[in-house]
Design a protein that fits this description.
There is one protein chain. This protein has 406 residues and is of the alpha+beta class. The chain folds into three domains: 143 residues, Alpha-Beta Complex (Adenine-n6-DNA-methyltransferase TaqI, Chain A, domain 2), CATH 3.90.220.20; 103 residues, Orthogonal Bundle (Helix Hairpins); 139 residues, DNA methylase specificity domains (Adenine-n6-DNA-methyltransferase TaqI, Chain A, domain 2). Helices cover 35% and strands 22% of the residues. Helix 6 packs antiparallel against helix 12.
Length: 406
């Protein structure tokens, strides 16, 4: 009998009481968003959390800061450290995080200040993490948005605190190991990015430079909506999937459209780069997927197919360099939605070595890319294995028999 079984036998032999989330909290709040049209409300020193940052993390900083004036003129309010934060809207709906610093949040965050006499806040975090799919299933709309009432009424098992603490200790050891592996992988990715930038700089080398517009053409997609997706048919890539699903290159699509609709849509051919035209930030705008499939595929609006006569992966790697990032920063425009100024992308200059040299460079970078991104080998494979192991044991540790009186 392990320690947890001994504690259960000793402290709750007749089962575990279940309570609503609201019954184990001191306070439950949401936040607010200062009007984005008022520059005086932003770039202050008050951490302000948005739902896209709620992603199973411990929050130690936020990408956006607001000012005292912004705080006073919105529904945003301070929450103490060690709250369990549940995202209610958007792509991260039903995901959770823990804030390790006092901060403010937007209105799409449900902030749970846990009553430490009833529950360990990390136990609540692990429980809600384990219940992600069930909680998300309560959502409504295309993004499965949930609301504060559903979070408050969601039930949680409440074993005695010593049992909660023992479970937290075990699960913390899993997450700590994963964090260490992630840190090592991040260091290797930084090394890879540095080497890629150096290899593609062609500093001191005799090489021809041309603009993207000189070596190819941009074909703008149009007319493809998510509602057009079918179970089978002609492959298609929607611009949003470039951020959420695809990696550097692919020869298969996640989604399809009917042959009848496909006749009306613009397409990418083998070797084209499918480029997202809009994003939420300058780092992601113009993220590209190299299409390597043999069949033509349909592309959506707010994306482009870049057709050219060079090695497609070579062009793809060039669009991952720091040079391209600096170019995007120069021409980016828009606040909530970022895109490049019209006509700017074809002016980006790239080196054009021989096709043979391009192939050599691609071969080298493919090996590095696999080492840091391919989940079938190396550190990514080990992290993936550890994560599956953690999720398995989390599920087992959080199985409780309801108390007899329920």
């Amino acid at each position: 009998m392990n320690k947890i079984e001994e504690l259960i036998e000793q402290l709750c032999p007749n089962g575990v009481e279940f309570k609503k989330i609201q019954d184990v909290c001191k306070k439950i709040t949401s936040g607010g968003t200062p009007p984005t049209s008022r520059s005086a409300y932003y770039n202050g020193n008050i951490p302000w959390l948005r739902t896209q940052e709620v992603d199973w993390l411990e929050i130690t900083d936020t990408s956006v800061k607001i000012t005292e004036e912004g705080l006073k003129n919105s529904s945003a309010n301070w929450i103490p450290a060690n709250c369990v934060i549940v995202a209610m809207y958007g792509a991260t709906a039903a995901k959770v995080a823990i804030n390790k610093i006092p901060l403010t949040t937007n209105q799409a965050c449900c902030n749970l200040e846990i009553d430490e006499e009833q529950a360990n806040y990390r136990f609540v975090f692990y429980w809600l993490s384990n219940e992600y799919l069930n909680l998300k299933a309560l959502g409504e709309g295309s993004q499965s948005n949930i609301n504060g009432q559903k979070v408050k009424n969601y039930e949680i098992p409440l074993p005695p605190l010593p049992i909660q603490q023992e479970i937290v200790t075990i699960l913390d050891s899993f997450t700590q190991l994963e964090a260490e592996l992630e840190a090592e992988l991040e260091a290797r990715r930084a090394q890879y990015n540095y080497y890629r930038n150096q290899l593609l700089s062609f500093e001191g080398q005799e090489v021809e430079w041309k603009t993207l517009g000189e070596i190819g053409e941009f074909i703008r997609g149009s007319g493809l909506q998510k509602s057009d997706f079918t179970e089978s048919g002609i492959g298609c890539i929607h611009y949003g999937q470039i951020y959420t699903y695809y990696g550097f290159a692919t020869d298969k699509t996640k989604t399809f459209v009917s042959p009848e609709l496909a006749k009306k849509l613009r397409k990418a051919k083998k070797g084209d780069l499918v480029i997202a035209g809009v994003s939420e930030n300058v780092e992601d705008v113009c993220k590209a997927v190299v299409w390597l499939g043999n069949e033509d595929i349909c592309i959506s609006g707010d994306s482009f197919a870049f057709r050219h006569n060079q090695n497609p992966k070579f062009i793809g790697y060039l669009l991952q360099t720091n040079r391209f990032l600096e170019f995007k920063k120069k021409y980016a425009q828009g606040a909530k939605v970022t895109r490049l100024r019209s006509g700017s992308l074809p002016t980006f200059q790239i080196p054009i070595p021989s096709i043979e040299e391009q192939e050599k460079i691609v071969s080298i970078l493919d090996k590095f890319d696999a080492l840091v991104n391919d989940i079938s080998i190396g550190l990514p494979a080990e992290i993936d294995g550890r994560r599956k192991q953690y999720e398995y044991y989390r599920g087992k540790l959080l199985e409780f028999k309801p108390a007899d009186n329920e």
